[in-house]
Specification:
There is one protein chain. The protein has one domain. Helix content is 71%, strand content 0%. Helix 2 runs parallel beside helix 15, helix 3 runs antiparallel to helix 7 and helix 14 runs antiparallel to helix 15. It starts with a helix and ends with a helix.
């Protein structure tokens, strides 16, 4: 019986973590590491694996703590997610986000304890990286900044409740992951990872705004005054196309970096651009339906927009990684 209970808690924890979301931290971290490599720093595989584990732990901390915070707030408002129809309150990404709580596999307290244990496990890794592997004096501060952002997003300062969550997430997921991946390999500060990360940073902000639209009623109910709630669905949706264009334009500085990447390799950027372009077309249809239907929308519309938007966003670091790795491979096999 004890083993079954522990198994339920573990499965509940994994479900709350939302494993697909880890791509939003793992790929940009890998991008930063590859940028350091192509910039001339020797790649340290052991440092990469240890730091990637730390990133994984801090991502779990953030995702689970946020889920348990929202669920606890809904319960305090008297919302019982076991009642049919209430699941529509929170339909972002994957249906049944709180099933682990609703089915009793894990409690909010157990989820919180697991989240904090992730931080405790990550801290020694930071100490090991800075003082044993000598990755630089900013190693621990960067990790602590990540912990602060992850915690403050839904607890403490509750940034996501005061219109600052989008900025916090953009800073942490958009910029910090890429910069940290670069710094831990290069052991120096440079503008290079920030320039390369610009399209990713803009798209992270855009997607966070967009994913707040299906959560609109839920966030209003728990008084989570994020930017979408403050601006309204129509204004939030109207920002999608301009932000997408800004993300595309942000690729341009990368083309002129002195990294020796052949221009034909950058054709791979057409892949994320294709998916984000599809989502732009879908958001335009969505905006029109908001006007016709008085501010409501269908689950099919939201699912199509978020699927293409998320795919396009995550393919940005993937495409850049592929471009830089191709450059490294070509250089390695070239006789000249």
């Amino acid at each position: 019986m004890h083993w079954n209970h522990a198994s339920d808690i573990l499965s509940g924890w994994i479900e709350l973590s939302g494993l697909p979301k880890f791509t939003t931290t793992v790929f940009p971290f890998l991008l930063g590491s590859v940028v350091a490599w192509i910039d001339g720093s020797p790649f340290n595989g052991l440092v990469f694996l240890i730091s990637l584990l730390a990133v994984f732990l801090l991502s779990s901390f953030c995702f689970v703590l946020n889920a348990s915070s929202i669920y606890a707030d809904l319960r305090r408002k008297g919302i019982d997610l076991r009642v049919e129809g209430t699941s529509a309150l929170h339909s972002t990404a994957v249906s049944g986000r709180f099933n682990a709580f609703v089915k009793g596999r894990i409690s909010v307290r157990q989820a919180d304890i697991g989240a904090y244990l992730c931080v405790l496990a990550a801290l020694p890794l930071g100490v090991l990286l800075q003082f044993y592997f000598k990755t630089g004096v900013l190693t621990l501060p960067l990790g602590l900044i990540g912990i602060f952002i992850a915690y403050s997003y839904s607890r403490g300062m509750r940034l996501s409740y005061h219109g600052l969550g989008e900025v916090a997430l953009t800073t942490g997921v958009g910029w910090l992951t890429v910069f940290s991946g670069y710094y831990l390999q290069a052991r120096q500060v440079s503008w290079l990872p920030t320039i390369v990360a610009l399209p990713w940073v803009i798209d992270v902000f855009k997607l966070k705004l967009t994913r707040n639209i299906p959560d609109f009623e839920c966030d209003q109910l728990i008084n989570r005054r994020n930017l979408a709630v403050r601006m309204g669905k129509r204004v939030t949706a109207s920002l999608y196309a301009p932000l997408t264009i800004c993300a595309w334009l942000a690729f341009i500085p990368t083309l002129f970096l002195d990294l020796g990447v052949p221009y034909p390799f950058f054709v791979l950027l057409a892949i994320p651009i294709f998916f984000t372009a599809r989502s732009v077309l879908l958001i335009q249809t969505f905006r029109k339906s908001l006007i016709k239907m008085g501010g409501s929308e269908t689950k099919e519309q939201i699912r199509g927009i978020t699927k293409n938007a998320f795919t396009g966003m995550i393919l940005i670091p993937v495409a850049l990684i592929a471009i830089f790795l191709l450059k490294i491979i070509v250089t390695a096999v070239s006789p000249f």
